[in-house]
Amino acid sequence: MQTPKKIIRPSWDEYFMRAAFLVAERSTCLRRKVGAVLVRDKQMLATGYNGAPKSITHCDVTGCLREKLNIPSGERHEICRGLHAEQNVIIQAANTGVSTKDSILYITTTPCIICAKMIINAGILEIVVAGKYPDNMALEFLEEAKIKLRQIKIAEPSLVK
Description:
Layout: H1 12-24, E1 35-40, E2 43-49, H2 59-62, H3 65-68, H4 85-95, E3 104-109, H5 113-121, E4 126-131, H6 136-144, E5 148-151
Parallel strand pairs: 3-4, 4-5
Antiparallel strand pairs: 1-2, 1-3
């Protein structure tokens, strides 16, 4: 009788973060592709990636105004055509009637301050990230709101940054 082979499976964190990187591949952002997966009880509830709203021309067609004006990462979000992955995952959950309360959000990078405020009010309990985004105020808000933030190491697919 043969000895059964040991099946190697990803941890839950790795599984959901890999899904977030796959979701990021849908992004039309020219500067940074970000993906987000909302999870509760080890079930994916919603996904989101950064890009222009429905029926609005994407940045890969119009070009990036922030890039054209040499605006550094983390600044002047209001002139960007796109929504962030975190915003889109919360909107997708709302559109499908899925509660975000007491969920975990897997994001390929830490959130900006605008997204951090939305995450706090959405009732998300924990954020798991693979990379960092330059926004210290966002991290301060998440800490004050007692939202757990964990960074995990994962082999990042080669996406346009």
